[in-house]
Amino acid sequence: MTTARIIDGKAIAEALRSDIARAVASLKSSSGVTPGLAVVLVGEDPASHVYVRNKAKQTAEAGMLSFEHRLPADTPEKDILALVARLNADDRVDGILVQLPLPKHIDAKKVIETIDPAKDVDGFHPVNAGRLAIGEQALVPCTPAGCLILAKSVSPKLTGMDAVIVGRSNIVGKPMAQLLLAEDCTVTIAHSRTRNLPEVVGRADLVIAAVGRPEMIEGDWIKPGAIVIDVGINRVPAGSGKSKLVGDVSYAAAATRAAAITPVPGGVGPMTIACLLRNTFQAACGRRHLTAPPS
Ligand code: NDP
Questions:
Q1: What is the pLDDT of residues 149-164, one digit of tens each?
Q2: Residue 295 pLDDT more than 70?
């Protein structure tokens, strides 16, 4: 029996996108600036194409300019670097996002480090990662930023909570830890070498699961009353040749113990693009020293 409150990421993302659209309209009328987001997609990865299409649609719906650069999989690295340099210099472009994964012959690190940190709306550039780590204003990676909004929708103050993040990637786990530290949580980052993961997860008032393993976190690991944010997106067989998406948490069982839990799909996923739009707005204001972005 589900007793947990289901955190409706779709509705929260929609509300955030409406706030951003209003802020964009007011920025346009007060300063004549229309924020612009450029997305670079290299190759034919079908999931990336769907994702980029959604980004372009939601960017336009927020009243921003959307620039798309779709390049063949065999594009030489130097051409990608040259394109990023052109986008850095283009004043209509406030945010640059290079869709990952990139084909193997392209060094993603080199590409990310070529993006102007002021336009780095994915927040992956070492300058933004460093600023986040030392508590300075930064462009924050979109998925952990979205997770934080979802957690705060349940409990606006997270101070003193024991937070356990499972996963230590640069795009989710590590920046998530920085964000929760800044909220005065006591943060544990677990990973594949963590001993006794069920016991570690069982201590958490707030669990962030970012592993990429279907339903790996079992329901009875969850402390009763915890908040559970499930970042995982895993496609699994659903019988008769069909498939479905599940998270990293065993949802049905966890929902009988948690106070609140995000579903998959419809939890963290929709927040990622909304936070990307927020970052683009923040970059447009930041580059021009204009009014503060919406929070
Ligand atoms: P990575 O593969 O980069 O990182 C996975 C992390 O999980 C690693 O730190 C790894 O540990 C840890 N891990 C793997 N196995 C175990 C285990 N048995 N026990 C404990 N920890 C383990 O993944 P990402 O961070 O990029 O993504 C994680 C998930 O989130 C994926 O399902 C991805 O699809 C999803 N995702 C969803 C997004 C969204 O918008 N909703 C956006 C980004 C990601 P170690 O470091 O020791 O190897």
A1: 999 999 999 999 999 9
A2: no
Say whether 249 sits in a helix, a strand or coil. Answer: strand
157 is catalytic: no
Q: Is the CB of 189 under 6 A from ligand 1?
A: no
CA–CA gap between residue 34 and residue 30 (Å, rounded): 11
97 in contact with ligand 1, CB cutoff 6 A: no
Render pLDDT for 151-208 as a digit per residue (tens, 0 to 9): 999 999 999 999 999 999 999 999 999 999 999 999 999 999 999 999 999 999 999 9
Candidate list 58, 99, 178, 282, residue with the active-site label: 99
> How far apart are the CA of 257 and the centre of ligand 1, in A?
23
Residue type, 124: F
Pick from 262, 215, 284, 290: which is nearest to 13 by CA? 262
**Strands 234-237, 243-246: parallel, antiparallel or unpaired by DSSP?**
antiparallel
CATH numbers and ranges of domains, the chain? 31-118 (3.40.50.10860), 142-269 (3.40.50.720)
93 touches 67 (CB < 8 A): yes
Contact criterion met (CB below 8 Å) for 253 and 285: no
